[in-house]
Amino acid sequence: MPERAAIVLLSGGLDSTTCLAMAKDQGFSPLYTLAFDYGQRHRHELTAAEKLSRSFGAKEHRVMKIDLRQFGGSSLTADIAVPKDRSDAQMGAGVPITYVPARNTIFLSYALAWAEVRNCDHVYIGVNALDYSGYPDCRPEFVESFQRTARLGTTRSEFTIHAPLVHLTKAQIIRLGVSLNVDYGQTHSCYDPSPEGLACGHCDSCLLRKKGFAEAGVADPTRYV
Amino acid sequence: MPERAAIVLLSGGLDSTTCLAMAKDQGFSPLYTLAFDYGQRHRHELTAAEKLSRSFGAKEHRVMKIDLRQFGGSSLTADIAVPKDRSDAQMGAGVPITYVPARNTIFLSYALAWAEVRNCDHVYIGVNALDYSGYPDCRPEFVESFQRTARLGTTRSEFTIHAPLVHLTKAQIIRLGVSLNVDYGQTHSCYDPSPEGLACGHCDSCLLRKKGFAEAGVADPTRYV
What is the mean pLDDT of residues B94-123? Predict the structure, then answer.
């Protein structure tokens, strides 16, 4: 079987780590992992991403530094409070303040550049349209359109974006990851962790994650403050 | 008339400067200009872009630092010689070594992020499909596909990419710019200038520019070594 390389966008969170496990399970090799230092409020997820890349045997892990703070506009990069303890209805209404402008477009563009240099046709991204319906760049039609744009804009006419989580619930993602032996205790999802990296338990990301473990009937290994 | 802001991708070269003049002529205001420090071999075009932005009265000029050298793969960013004195046939054959992987995809992604934060729906890019047919990300079908992706991936459903030079020859671009009083002596196109910023006169970019002035019947204001 010819070598099939894949690049996995790896934030160090629950979704992207499940994608990494899936890419490995599906026989892609070598695996390259790509994280972004985009002016997040904390570095715990970058540390998690690096460790997870190693533990899955990726050939190379890159951290691209991109300064989205220059543009502002999101509570994840600007000096805006991270919302806490929101209801499902609140989370589902409109584009959340944690949305980072054009983030996945920028992330996929870098993955595309790296794919082109590595002669690689496969990129995994852990976007999810169910839990985060408010993020326009997590919808399948966005991913498909980016793939088309990428094929037109590069020398890689077979370039394929794998978004295997796009229609799964958080509970389904967790069950899938558990079946692939993902250690979710090593992943980091919280938008607003303590200085030691403990999850706040109250931001949108913590609430969705908690609910996911509960619905999956899987013990939540997250360390909360 | 309501205010119509536009972002102009401004490299400081002949094409992007003509785009800036066109955006101004078409009544867009305020104008924002965006340049990229992407590990080019020299900084003369960044200096040119900043001066040109000021001279056209742009409200804001940003230089995004993006590290495409990490990926390598192009003579414009990696340690590969810039080709000189190539014939038209050589220039027209295949993807040139000066192609930077996914460059316009990355540039447009940043423009999109800034557009979203500024509530702006218009981006100008000076891509040209005739003179640089070897660059896949200069083709109109790429630009159209990116626009579609951008509308799907952001909150800006009216986002529009203006690529007014896409079907023009270099001579037509120069004549258009001259009619809009562009001072081409202030623009920088050379891939491999002298330390003082004088154009080499022999790289693909210099050759196309020279030929453009000759065909347009306009005196070439470029300072060559």
Answer: 85
Q: Is A112 on the interface with B (CB under 8 A)?
A: yes
Nearest alpha-carbon partner for B99 in B73, B81, B79, B124: B73
Q: Which residue has the higher pLDDT, A8 or A3?
A: A8
Residues 6+ apart with CB under 8 A from A121: A4, A5, A115, A156, A158, A159, A160
Q: Cβ contact (<8 Å) for B145 and A152?
A: yes
Q: Give chain A's domain count.
A: 1
CATH number where B97 lies: 3.40.50.620
Q: Is A126 helix (H, G, I), strand (E, B) or coil?
A: coil
Residue A56 maps to a domain: yes
- Short-list A112, A156, A114, CA closest to B109: A112
pLDDT at A86: 78
Task: Look at strands A6-9 and A31-37 and give their pairing.
Answer: parallel
How many Å lie between the alpha carbon of B19 and the closest alpha carbon of chain A? 21
How many CA atoms, within 13 angstroms, populate the side-chain half-sphere of residue A183?
A: 9
| 8 A C-beta contact, residue B71 and residue A113 | yes
Tell me the residue range of the domain where B163 lies.
Answer: 6-216
Within a domain: residue B101?
Answer: yes
| Position A67 in a domain | yes
ipTM reported for the complex surpasses 0.90: no
Q: Do B64 and A70 touch (CB under 8 A)?
A: yes
Mean pLDDT of the B15-19 span: 97
Distance from CA of A219 to the nearest CA of B (A): 34
**pTM of the full structure:** 0.89
Q: Which of A124, A49, A55, A134 is nearest to A89 (CA)?
A: A134
Report whether B216 contacts B171 (CB < 8 A): yes
**B223 part of a folded domain:** no
- What's the sign of the alpha-carbon dihedral A202, A215, A220, A177? negative
Q: How far is A108 from chain B (nearest CA, A)?
A: 9
CB A36 within 8 A of CB A12: no
Mapping DSSP to helix (H, G, I), strand (E, B) and coil, where does residue A89 land?
helix
Q: What is the pLDDT of residues A166-192, one digit of tens each?
A: 999 999 999 999 999 999 999 999 988
